[in-house]
């Protein structure tokens, strides 16, 4: 069982890390700004589900495979990079939606949740990060290391959920204004496309 001071220290560090610009929060930011806060929240839920996967993987030692096997690491990162390129393609091809026409297409919520899951799970850097970060806050004197890792992962997920939800709401607050302007939507979709390409390149060139 983790002590209260460890929980507070870890939660503070996790919250700060969640706000540092990175693939996940940039992804939430762009999706929220383009499609609205509800979509951003769905993406956030998907990302947090992905974090559950990484937490369990790290706790059970599966993530060590990505740290020791270059082939496994490269395979997963290229799948993730390909998915980001696909999202970039979709952004570049996206057409403006008008709120005042009554024909605005609503993004399927399950699709956005799944998008967040895939985005997170296919990033082996998250598993490596958890493998390096979580154990620093564990202690054999506090009981089972596996249970401590699961607890820390749960705290990190709660911090990510809270932080990304705020980002979704802040970015989503401008989505209605953007979706009334075709030009703004086109520009934002182009920016999103370039962001996805940049993230894909960063992931594809990542090292363990």
Explain this structure to me?
The chain has helices at residues 4-19, 23-35, 37-59, 64-68, 70-93, 109-121, 124-133, 145-172, 175-178, 182-204. Residues 99-104 have low confidence and may be disordered. Helix 2 runs antiparallel to helix 3. By secondary structure, the chain is mainly α. It has one domain (35-96, 105-204). The longest helix has 28 residues, at 145-172. It starts with a helix and ends with a helix.
Q: Per DSSP, what share of the residues sits in E-state strands of 2 or more residues?
A: under 5%
Distance between the termini: 31 Å
Instruction: Output the helix-strand order.
Output: HHHHHHHHHH
Tally the helices: 10
Q: Overall pLDDT, averaged?
A: 80
Indicate the percent of residues in helices: over 70%
Low-confidence segments = 99-104
Largest sheet features: none
Question: Which of globular, elongated, flat, extended, rod-shaped describes the shape?
Answer: globular
> How many domains?
1
Structural class: mainly alpha
Number of E strands: 0
Task: Work out the radius of gyration.
Answer: 18 Å
Task: Describe the SSE topology.
Blueprint: H1 4-19, H2 23-35, H3 37-59, H4 64-68, H5 70-93, H6 109-121, H7 124-133, H8 145-172, H9 175-178, H10 182-204
Label this structure with key terms.
mainly alpha; 76% helix; single chain; globular; 208 residues
Concise synopsis of the structure shown:
The protein is an all-alpha fold. 76% of the residues lie in helices and 0% in strands.
């Amino acid at each position: 069982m983790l002590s209260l001071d460890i929980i507070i220290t870890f939660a503070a560090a996790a919250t700060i890390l969640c706000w540092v610009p990175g693939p996940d929060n940039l992804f939430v930011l762009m999706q929220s700004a383009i499609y609205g806060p509800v979509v951003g929240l769905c993406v956030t839920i998907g990302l947090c589900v992905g974090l559950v996967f990484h937490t369990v993987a790290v706790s059970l030692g599966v993530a060590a495979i990505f740290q020791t096997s270059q082939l496994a690491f490269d395979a997963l990162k290229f799948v993730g990079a390909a998915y980001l390129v696909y999202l970039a393609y979709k952004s570049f091809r996206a057409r403006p939606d008008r709120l005042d026409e009554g024909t605005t297409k609503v993004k399927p919520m399950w699709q956005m949740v799944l998008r967040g899951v895939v985005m997170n799970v296919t990033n082996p850097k998250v598993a490596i990060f958890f493998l390096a970060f979580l154990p620093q806050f564990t202690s054999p004197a506090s009981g089972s290391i596996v249970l401590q890792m699961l607890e820390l992962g749960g705290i990190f997920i709660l911090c990510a959920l809270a932080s990304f939800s705020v980002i979704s709401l802040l970015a989503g607050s401008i989505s209605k204004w953007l979706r009334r302007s075709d030009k703004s939507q086109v520009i934002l979709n182009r920016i999103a496309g370039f962001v996805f390409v940049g993230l894909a390149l960063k992931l594809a060139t990542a090292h363990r």
